[in-house]
Amino acid sequence: MRKVAIVGAGLTRFVxxxxxxxxxxxxxxxxxxxxxxxxxLEDIDCVAHGTAPDAFDGxxxxxxYMVDGCGGWNKPTMRVYVGGATGVHAVVHGWHxxxxxxxxxxxxxxxxxxxxxxxxxxxxxxxxFDAITERAxxxxxxxxxxxxxxRYMQRYGYTKEDxxxxxxxxxxxxxxxxxxxxxxxxxxxxxxxxxTMAYPVSxxxxxxxxxxxxxxxxxxxxxxRRITDKPVWIEGVGWTLDTAYWATRDLYYPRYLxxxxxxxxxxxxxxxxxxxxxxxxxxxxxxxxxxHHMEGLQLAPRGKTVELLRDGHFARDGNLPMxxxxxxxxxxNPIAAAGTMKVCELFWQLRGEADQRQVPGNPKxxxxxxxxxxxxxxSVVVAGI
Amino acid sequence: xxxxxxxxxxxxxxxxxxxxxxxxxxxxxxxxAYAWDTxxxxxxxxxxxxxxxxxxxxxxACKRVMxxxxxxxxxxxxPSGDWVYLQDSGVVNTYSxxxxxxxxxxIKEGEKPYLPAVIEIDGAAEGMGIMHLLGxxxxxxxxxxxxxxxxxxxxxxxxxxxxxxxxxxxxxxxG
Lengths: 385, 175
Known about the structure:
The complex is a heterodimer of chains A (385) and B (175). Chain A is of the alpha/beta class and 385 residues long.
C-alpha cells in the first residue's frame, strides 16, 4: 500500500438552514479545499463523496444528483454511505483509491442538508428501526440514544452533570471555530436546565440539525510532497459494522468502535493510543457519546473517563484535547459533513494552522472517528505529521 | 493575521427571510407505501405473539436462545435449531422517559411520556433483549434491573404484532 497524505481542506459554515442547495454547498467546500492546496479540478483523478439518508433531501440516489457539486463529472466517482459514520468513512474510502496505487489525487467531499425535510429531519429516522418488530412502537431516534446513555451512566455511576461537562467542553471549544453555528458559550447549568426530550437526554445534550459541507484532498506520497511542505499522513484507517440486533447486545460499551480503533492503531503502529495520540476528535452527536467513544477509541479507561474530563485532561491545553474543533456539539451536525469536518480539524491542528483553536505543544498524532446507524458502525482515521 | 482555516459558503437563512418571501421555496411531498413480508422466523414470532406467547430460536452451535428469533445465527453463521418458548417476563436493561413523538413534535400537555426500554427476556440468552414500552409505573419508579412482565391485549384484539404486548409492567417482589 502507498502512503497517503491529506494536502488540502475546506469547509462551509454550518447553519441551521442554508440558502445554498446541496450541490452549491458541496461546490463551496470542494473548491475551498482545492484552492487551499493550489490544485484545479482537472488535477484530480477521482472523487469519493458522501451524503447521508436520501430521505433528507427527498432525492432518490442523491449521490448521482450531487456529482456536479463534488467535481465528479466524467471521473471515477463513488459515494459511500454508512449513516453518521459517512464523513470519516468517505475519507477511508478515498484513502483506498490512493493507497491502492490506482489514483494519485482524490477529492473527498461530504455534504448534508437536513433543513429540507419537513417538519423535522428526525422523523425520517423512524425508518431505520426494524420494520416489523420495532417500528410499530413508533420510536423516535432519541430513544436509542436515551437508552444507550442511561445504560452507560448507570453502568459506571455517571451523572447528568458529568455528561453536561462534556457538552460544555465541546460547545465552548466550538466558539472559536469559524464554521460554528453557535454564538454563545454555555454552562453546565444551561445544559442541565434545558428541556428534557427523552430522559436522560436534554435538549443541549444533543447536537443541532445543520446544513453544511466539508472536503479534503488526498495525495499519494510523491505527489503530496510536491504539493505541500506539510503533508498530513493518514497513518491508519479502520472500520467495523456491528449487528443490527442492537437490543441484544449491551449498549454500555461501543463494541462497534473497539475493533475499528484497534485496526487503525495497528496499521499506524500505535501500541499505547492513550499515551501516543495528541488530539482526539471522537464523534459527539450527544455529549455522552464523546465520552463513550473516548473509551471505544482506547483513549480512556472504561468508567474513568469522567474523572479525566473533570481533571482537565481533555481540555484544549490538557494532555489529550477532546474535540478541539468543537465537534458536532460545538460546530454543528450536518451529518456526513460533520465527520469530514473532524478530519479537516486534524489537518489544521497537526499543521499548526488552527488559529485561535490551536492545541499547544505541536501535536503530532490525531484520531478522528464517526459513528452511525443503530449503534452499529464506526470509521476511524489516524493522522500524523 | 490571515486566517489559515478556509471557510466559504453556508449562508444562513432565518425564519423571517422565509416568511417575508425574500427567498423562494418549492415544496413537494412523497407518499410511499410498502407491504413487508415478515419472513420465515418473524412470521412464527408474530403468530406466537397472537397466541399470547413469546418464542425464540436456539443456535445449535453457540447455544444462544435468540430473540427476536432468526433462521440463522449471525455469530456462528449457521442455521439455527429448535424453537424455544420464552417467558413473558424479563429485566429492564435500560429505559428512557420520552416527551417527543416519532416526528420530533412534543407530546401534548398532560399526556403521559413514552417509556421505551430494552427488556432482557427470561429464557433467552443472557443479555438478549427487545425494545418495548413500560406501563403501569410512575416514571420515577423505573430502575435498571427491575423485573417486569408483559401485559397483553385481549385475545380478540391481538393481530400478530409486537404491539400485541401493550407494555411491560413491574413484577411485584414475590412475582
